[in-house]
Amino acid sequence: MEDAPRWMKQTERVLDGLSFLCMLIASIALVVLIVTFGWLVFGRYVLNSTPTWVEQLALLLICYITYLGAAVGIHDNTHLGVTIFRDMMPAKINSFLRLLIDIILAAFGLIMMIASIDLVVFGWSTLLPMLSIPEGVRSLSAALCGGLVFIFAGTRVAFRIACHVHGKTYVERGLI
Amino acid sequence: MGLAILLGIFAVGVVLGIPVAFAMGIAALTAFWYEGFPLLLTFQRSVSGISVFSLLAIPFFIFAGELMLHGGIAMRLVRFAQTLVGHVRGGLATVNIFSSMLFGGISGSAIADISALGSIQIPMMKERGYHPDYAVNVTVTSSIAGIVIPPSHNMIIFAVAAGGGISISKLFLAGVVPGILMCVCLAVAAYIIAIKREYPAEAFPGWKAVWVSSLHAVPGLITAIIIVGGVLSGVFTVTESGAFGAIYALLLTFFVYRSLDWEGFKTSVVSSVRTTAMVMVLIGFASSFAYLLALYQVPDKLSSFMLGISSEKIFVLLMINVMLLVLGMIMDMAALILICTPIFLPIVKDLGMDPTQFGIMLLVNLGLGLCTPPVGTCLFVGCAVGRVKIEETLKTIWPFYLAILAALILITYVPAVSLYLPSLLID
Amino acid sequence: KDWRGWNIHVEDYPVSHGMEAFMAEVEEKTGGEIKGKVFHAGVLGSQPDAIEQLRLGALDFAVFSLGPMGQAVPATNVVSLPFIFKSIPQMYELMDGAGGAALGEALEEKGIVALGYYDAGARSFYNSIQPINTPADVEGMKIRVMNNDLFVDMVNNLGGNGTPMAFAEVYQSIKNNTVDGAENNPPSYESTSHFEVAQFYSLTQHLIIPECLCMSKKAFDALTPEQQEIVKTAGKNSTDLQRKLWGEREAASMEIIKAGGVQVNEIADKSAFQAAMGPVYDGYLAANSDMTDLVNLFRNAD
Ligand code: NA
Ligand code: NA
């Protein structure tokens, strides 16, 4: 998007940074997952004492890997989907469908965030076994994902409309 | 009515092109809303569908697979396969299939297979005068052998979906013969076409070269032995084996092969996060979806409907296979395993089929779906790697479909194909 | 109204029959105004999920084990303390009286109405080495326990090595001597075939963890006073039925394991085991001083 307005380019840069941050956190979580599990195996079979917190921590980490990674997938357009029918449509309908999908995803993200925050609050008094941290911390990952999906898909809605108004074509991020 | 909303919204969402995982989430959310349930139930189901202990093996297997690719293990496997079976007519196709068999024994992920092996082998085949469509067809269809050759994270998803009570060890063993059988069927198909199209054979490099290349490949193959051996011996749980295998692969590529640098490590971690998130988020929203299917008693209803048509085992199994094939065409594997297992498992159990055999049948069937449009991840990735249009490959892929179907029929109707090996080695 | 009931057990199980009987009685006595269906075999999710769903009103009734319920309702952890009940009959008496009432209050604070306490038997040790008669026999044994520090401590204080492990892995692990044994009630010990690989069953009865027939407070409050009475009575009747069926099931399992060559030994005097639990209680009370009265209520009952 060479001739895109400045605010769009700047927003894109902020979104890229956000997505990078998510990826960084998720990657660290994956490395921690692997290292702590190595520690578990070592503890159980060599030291003869099983660190009981590892499994519960792992179940927490996997939620953050999944939901942060999934949000990045929305930003980068890498989720599995059937595009074959959409691609058969004429260009105008196609770009309308893409706008519609982004609107639906943004709405879903918003509901996901709000409902998951409810879940966080509801689960705050329940403790995760072995870790003694609130169960709500787990659902927080879903709330984050919802918020990020809302931001990523929502800005795309704005971009599409802005491009349409200025009579330019919106360039999609690379699909797999 | 609620069920119609659930299925209808999902179908419309998929056709529109909404990512499948989110289409399931949106459909479930709408159905919960229609039923007057708290909306947060959608996300509670999704979060707890992910927080399942056995599923933790998935990121480990995926990470091990990525290390194969970025740490040079895949390359060594291909070289080994090439020295061993490259000299038959159309040899590179046989090499392709054989190396998928070996690689499947490590990663258990068809996508990893295609991106790891396909990116080496498809260009190699094109260079030696094979048509691009043929190269892609062989790569795509052989990749699904990895789904049933142990270890396989899809087997773990199946065991979770079956509600425990299914031994992972038995599943692992049960997959070996069907996996080899599929490869043999594919090799036959590939060989016949190779003769027709007069593809070349490679020169046999001599036993010394076979010996040397096998020495290079063996440390990589030990990853599989660690994972499978750990589970079969009962020393490790499947999750621990996965972690141990991943750590072994990391140490091997970093210290022994010295082919993994910091960049390769970063790439492996990031790709693993992407793939894990893609698979797990599907599993999560499929759990919300499956909860509603259970609530609407779809398993009971479908079962009495099917058994009402016929209670003949041969026919019911045929019906199930056809339904799975159709579903496999439009949906992805992990989600379908979670959704279909509780529906079909009780039916086949009533018919006296061993749940383990059913698991293998299900996986092969859904694996075939990965190679078919419109949702065929393997086909898409294969075509992208080979730079061929999907339509192009579809014109010539049917002999390979037939080969897998032949294997599927044997797996469905001859229990011994899956169950003989476990019966020998367990108890 | 259409009620949804959650149950982790398969259709043919004492708990399941108890729940079906409860629903049938409610349906009959309310003249069909309240109908319902029990979803067996955990098709609606795991227990922690179901507890949340019940509290939210997405489920109307359920039977929960009080063991893992402690995460949501900490007071229920009290029945996970080893030897807190002296025997099954004493558990019945206490749970139908003051103990059950105290737990019921704690549950109600979290939006759960307790209608009755089902019997889930007593858990005892089994292993592949030798009969356990005194704590000295546990010395050095690696025993699988449920994933809870309390149970790890319990085995460690007997001189063994408590090892948390997924339930599905236990059979193979005993067979390979990765662990020497585990602990469970007779029906589970029998139905999982663990008795084939661990042939010594010593009736320590160290854990008696009842299950609770629960209703969502949201659903309960929506009933008329007459309907609430009907539901309470049905809960009590189904509890009686379940306990009777449980006794029969347990006896049948004992027959099967004895026929399978298991050496079963009773432990006449459990005081040595109980005495070894001192540190477990001290540790628990140190971390949960607010539970002191409740623990004493249970521990000091005859
Ligand atoms: Na291949
Ligand atoms: Na497909």
UniProtKB/TrEMBL annotation, chain A:
<keyword id="KW-0997">Cell inner membrane</keyword>
<dbReference type="Pfam" id="PF04290">
    <property type="entry name" value="DctQ"/>
</dbReference>
<dbReference type="GO" id="GO:0005886">
    <property type="term" value="C:plasma membrane"/>
</dbReference>
<feature type="transmembrane region" description="Helical">
    <location>
        <begin position="137"/>
        <end position="159"/>
    </location>
</feature>
<comment type="function">
    <text>Part of the tripartite ATP-independent periplasmic (TRAP) transport system.</text>
</comment>
<keyword id="KW-1133">Transmembrane helix</keyword>
<comment type="similarity">
    <text>Belongs to the TRAP transporter small permease family.</text>
</comment>
<dbReference type="InterPro" id="IPR055348">
    <property type="entry name" value="DctQ"/>
</dbReference>
<keyword id="KW-0472">Membrane</keyword>
<feature type="transmembrane region" description="Helical">
    <location>
        <begin position="20"/>
        <end position="42"/>
    </location>
</feature>
<dbReference type="GO" id="GO:0015740">
    <property type="term" value="P:C4-dicarboxylate transport"/>
</dbReference>
<keyword id="KW-1003">Cell membrane</keyword>
<dbReference type="GO" id="GO:0022857">
    <property type="term" value="F:transmembrane transporter activity"/>
</dbReference>
<comment type="subunit">
    <text>The complex comprises the extracytoplasmic solute receptor protein and the two transmembrane proteins.</text>
</comment>
<keyword id="KW-0812">Transmembrane</keyword>
<protein>
    <recommendedName>
        <fullName>TRAP transporter small permease protein</fullName>
    </recommendedName>
</protein>
<feature type="transmembrane region" description="Helical">
    <location>
        <begin position="96"/>
        <end position="117"/>
    </location>
</feature>
<feature type="transmembrane region" description="Helical">
    <location>
        <begin position="57"/>
        <end position="75"/>
    </location>
</feature>
<dbReference type="InterPro" id="IPR007387">
    <property type="entry name" value="TRAP_DctQ"/>
</dbReference>
<feature type="domain" description="Tripartite ATP-independent periplasmic transporters DctQ component">
    <location>
        <begin position="34"/>
        <end position="157"/>
    </location>
</feature>
<keyword id="KW-0813">Transport</keyword>
Automatic annotation (TrEMBL), chain B:
<feature type="transmembrane region" description="Helical">
    <location>
        <begin position="90"/>
        <end position="114"/>
    </location>
</feature>
<dbReference type="InterPro" id="IPR010656">
    <property type="entry name" value="DctM"/>
</dbReference>
<feature type="transmembrane region" description="Helical">
    <location>
        <begin position="272"/>
        <end position="294"/>
    </location>
</feature>
<feature type="domain" description="TRAP C4-dicarboxylate transport system permease DctM subunit">
    <location>
        <begin position="7"/>
        <end position="416"/>
    </location>
</feature>
<comment type="similarity">
    <text>Belongs to the TRAP transporter large permease family.</text>
</comment>
<feature type="transmembrane region" description="Helical">
    <location>
        <begin position="134"/>
        <end position="159"/>
    </location>
</feature>
<feature type="transmembrane region" description="Helical">
    <location>
        <begin position="47"/>
        <end position="69"/>
    </location>
</feature>
<feature type="transmembrane region" description="Helical">
    <location>
        <begin position="171"/>
        <end position="194"/>
    </location>
</feature>
<dbReference type="GO" id="GO:0005886">
    <property type="term" value="C:plasma membrane"/>
</dbReference>
<keyword id="KW-0812">Transmembrane</keyword>
<keyword id="KW-1003">Cell membrane</keyword>
<feature type="transmembrane region" description="Helical">
    <location>
        <begin position="214"/>
        <end position="236"/>
    </location>
</feature>
<feature type="transmembrane region" description="Helical">
    <location>
        <begin position="243"/>
        <end position="260"/>
    </location>
</feature>
<comment type="subunit">
    <text>The complex comprises the extracytoplasmic solute receptor protein and the two transmembrane proteins.</text>
</comment>
<feature type="transmembrane region" description="Helical">
    <location>
        <begin position="360"/>
        <end position="386"/>
    </location>
</feature>
<protein>
    <recommendedName>
        <fullName>TRAP transporter large permease protein</fullName>
    </recommendedName>
</protein>
<dbReference type="InterPro" id="IPR004681">
    <property type="entry name" value="TRAP_DctM"/>
</dbReference>
<feature type="transmembrane region" description="Helical">
    <location>
        <begin position="315"/>
        <end position="348"/>
    </location>
</feature>
<dbReference type="Pfam" id="PF06808">
    <property type="entry name" value="DctM"/>
</dbReference>
<dbReference type="GO" id="GO:0022857">
    <property type="term" value="F:transmembrane transporter activity"/>
</dbReference>
<comment type="function">
    <text>Part of the tripartite ATP-independent periplasmic (TRAP) transport system.</text>
</comment>
<keyword id="KW-1133">Transmembrane helix</keyword>
